[in-house]
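Can anyone check this?
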Amino acid sequence: MSGLPQQPNNPNLLVGFEHADDAGVYRLRDDLAIVQTLDFFTPIVDDPFDYGRIAALNSINDVWAMGGTPITAMAITCFPRKGVDFAILGEIMRGGLSVLMENNIALIGGHSVDNAEIMFGYSVTGIIDPNEIATNSGARPGDVLILTKPIGTGAISTAIKFEKCTPEVAEDSLRTMLTPAREAAALMREYGVKAATDITGFGLIGHAWEVAKASQVTFEIEAASIPRLPQALELVAQGMLTRGDRVNRDYVGEDVLMDAISKPMQSLLYDPQTAGGLLICIAENRADDLLTKLQTTYPQAAIIGQVTNRGEHSISVR
């Protein structure tokens, strides 16, 4: 999209695609705006019902990451007309619908395409007060970085495919992916958070880099403070990597400094996540209080670093 011509200035378009934000925001009136996003992907677990649930939360999380409240969704699926039982598609959609219903989101339609590779997700619309939007460009020096959920779902999903993963580790990963960001979004509004993102395909480093770059600051991250799923680092060391390990490194280029940490840990930080946690920027004097409240729902939430004035790199990991 970066190669497309810039649209004429529209004062009601509050958040577009310029800074790689999780969703777009369009103002309807002074106290109301809509939040819009879209996401779908191929199966990452064997159970179709769970796949549908994960895909739904992965899509909805983009609205919560902006501080919004999701209200409607439209399903998007690619599915082969022949060779795969349509009952599987029914289970996928049933799983997704269960998540929509749990979060009071109305399913209002959808679109399907005959395709050899299965894909599923949603286009989600939410609402938000224009004064409560959390964006990629809102981080300020002195802020503290809070991550709400552990990382490692990509490596574990790869390990599941190669039968290198124990049922207990797979269950931990599933439980993490199925934890919604709803409560985190409510707390973000309560604490006036102005910068946040959800950690998905570009991994922790890729999405943190987007925020740091858009905000023209540097994120100083402590690797030892980052919560991770059980066995995730060990599985990375065994080579359970996705192509995101290379693609995400290319995405940030030379703008990330992390020479001081091990190669497996570097790969884990680039590991693509599904329905990952939120990375929240909050003033230091409010961080501990926010963290305590977050840990009620997200017990592994942790402070992982701080925001400083722009240095030589957008991200520095030690």
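Reply from J.R.: I decoded it. The longest strand covers residues 69-79.
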